[in-house]
Write a structure and sequence with these properties.
Radius of gyration: 23 Å
GO molecular function, one term: cellulase activity
Strand order of the largest sheet: 1-2-3
Order of helices and strands: HHEHHEEHHHHHHHHHEEHHHHH
Pfam family, one: Glyco_hydro_9
InterPro entries: 6-hairpin_glycosidase_sf, 6hp_glycosidase-like_sf, Glyco_hydro_9, Glyco_hydro_9_Asp/Glu_AS, Glyco_hydro_9_His_AS
Structural class: mainly alpha
Catalytic activity: Endohydrolysis of (1->4)-beta-D-glucosidic linkages in cellulose, lichenin and cereal beta-D-glucans
Strand content: under 5%
Enzyme class: hydrolase
Distance between the termini: 85 Å
Length: 535
């Protein structure tokens, strides 16, 4: 408990600090505590949450169709379901943030820890398919169930309100045989992590091998991982797999240097199917665990800015670059592409619930893209005829993070433990049930769900779902649209915080070259000059 209390004290101290220092320390505590709070399996080495214990230690082994260990990984939110789709995206995001901002993580003493968290996720992903094979025919999509709409009284992860450590009901495993979106996102996660761990050659090679098998499987066995009526469709529905082909292809190229992956990611038909030409549609530029296109376009704009591979990739890379510029314009209030609340929060989900997950992803892309432009000695970008400096993007990113940390009409921090006013009743089973040695069964824990008292355990650093479109917020445990923290949202928050944190690390904020380590020279080395002529 001492470690958690220390983290609370650190977060409260930030109220008296400058904005950059607030962001820096919040990032440090986030990587330290919140992901440990939703870890599955045996406790990680650096668990900072005293009220957690080993949980779901028979996952996979107790399923008659799988019968292998699927212990580990992360729960998706305030329940105990493990969804590979948002989990893989979260690992990709964390890896991306480490690749770009390794020096910042190192400066705050969190590099080793964030790498351990990523490895906790990728080790689990490697368990969910035959990672030793070159060709696979199935992958695990999910462990546990959450659908309660059919009136069944069969205990599952939503029907019950229990600490994960006390779960004693069956947790079925869902496999898929044609799931291009999930396979490509898992490939992206392993490929990005292979760059993070490139100095550990054996592990990095293992990640690349698994990523190759996954991406190949996704390309050959076409289909969405979330069929209608399934748990996946209810909770983490995938609308398309074309964006994952682009996103996964880009990460595969950076991990391997194999041009065939870049050819896929930049194929004109692929860009069209992924929606690269749909600028002006309501959700264009909204980067989420479902729609990877905005992130893929930023990632491939990086390639054009720094390596400029030219023909035959230039046409689509230029399109992605131009569309990235357009997306950055759409984030600015003056263009009215998206509404903003009176308090200043961008409404990327058009006034829908749980808005913060979208805002942090946009803040990350804006901050990162501004760093790309500066590293390319470009002072800004154009929105139509008007030129805007990179500081405009950073101002947008800061404004969203400031709102989340308390600069809003309610003066409410939406990060647990930050400041003097923050959510006390997050929708989270483990945090809401006392860690007192008493086992509360499937229905026994509901008295803790329904109580109006604050959670007995603080999930320090967890960003909750957030306010409504009127800047209103209800600190009510039973309303997950306000108070539930998710793995995907908090991965985006960590990435956004480290990107905007003001930490001197050299000439550029980003690491320009590490992501390109596997890529061979774009153009052949010219032959040496002829020897001097001798008569």
């Amino acid at each position: 408990m001492a470690k958690t209390m220390n983290s609370l004290k650190q977060l409260k101290l930030t109220e008296r600090m400058s904005a950059p220092t607030k962001i820096l320390l919040t990032c440090r505590v986030l990587t330290d505590d919140v992901l440990s709070g939703i870890s599955a399996g045996p406790l990680p080495k650096h668990n900072g949450v005293s009220w957690r214990g080993n949980s779901c230690m028979k996952d996979g082994l107790s399923d008659s169709t799988v019968r292998r260990s699927l212990v580990g990984g992360f729960y998706d939110a305030g329940d105990a379901i493990k969804f590979n789709y948002p989990m893989a995206w979260s690992m990709t995001m964390l890896s991306w943030s480490v690749i770009e901002y390794k020096a910042k993580y190192e400066a705050i003493g969190e590099l080793d820890h964030i790498k351990e968290l990523i490895k906790w996720g990728t080790d689990y992903i490697l368990k969910t398919f035959n990672s030793s094979a070159d060709t696979i025919d199935r992958i695990v999509a999910q462990v546990g169930l959450g659908d309660t709409s059919k009136g069944s009284s069969q205990p599952n992860d939503h029907y019950c309100w229990m600490r994960p450590e006390d779960i004693d009901y069956k947790r079925p495993v869902t496999e898929c045989h044609s799931c291009s979106d999930l396979a490509s996102e898992m490939a992206a996660a392993l490929a990005a992590a292979s760059i993070v761990f490139k100095d550990s050659k054996t592990y990095s090679d293992k990640l690349v091998k698994g990523a190759k098998a996954l991406y190949k499987f996704g390309r050959l066995q076409r289909g969405r991982y979330s069929p209608n009526g399934s748990d996946q469709a209810i909770f983490y529905n995938s609308t398309s797999y074309w964006d994952e082909f682009v996103w996964g292809g880009a990460w595969m190229y950076f991990a391997t240097g194999n041009n065939s992956y870049l050819t896929i990611a930049t194929a004109p038909g692929m860009a069209k199917h992924a929606g690269a030409y749909w600028f002006g549609s309501p959700n264009y530029g909204v980067f989420t665990w479902d729609d990877k296109l905005p992130g893929a376009q930023v990632l491939l704009s990086r390639l054009r800015l720094f390596l400029s591979p030219g023909y035959p990739y230039e046409e689509i890379l230029r399109t992605f670059h131009n569309q990235t510029d357009n997306v950055m314009c759409s984030y600015l209030p003056l263009f009215n592409s998206f509404n903003f609340t009176k308090g200043g929060l961008i409404q990327l989900n058009h006034g829908g619930p749980q808005p913060l997950q979208y805002a942090v992803n946009a803040a990350f892309l804006a901050s990162l893209y501004s760093d790309y432009l500066e590293a390319a000695d470009t002072p800004g970008w154009y929105c139509g005829p008007n030129f805007y400096t990179t500081e405009v993007l950073r101002k947008f990113a800061r404004s969203q993070l400031d709102y989340i940390l308390g600069k809003n009409p309610l003066k409410m921090s939406y990060v647990v433990g930050f400041g003097n006013k923050y959510p006390k009743r997050p929708h989270h089973r483990g945090a809401s049930i006392p860690h007192n040695g008493v086992k509360y069964g499937c229905k026994g824990g509901f008295k803790w769900r329904e109580t109006k008292k604050a959670n007995p355990n603080a999930l320090v650093g967890a960003m909750v779902a957030g306010p409504d479109r009127h800047d209103g917020f209800k600190d009510v445990r039973t309303n997950y649209n306000y108070t539930e923290p998710t793995l995907a949202a908090n991965a985006g928050l960590v990435a956004a915080l480290i990107s905007i944190a003001d930490i001197p690390t050299g000439r550029y904020s980003i690491d320009k070259n590490t992501i390109f380590s596997a890529i061979p020279p774009m153009f052949p080395t010219p032959p040496p000059p002829p020897s001097a002529w001798k008569p």
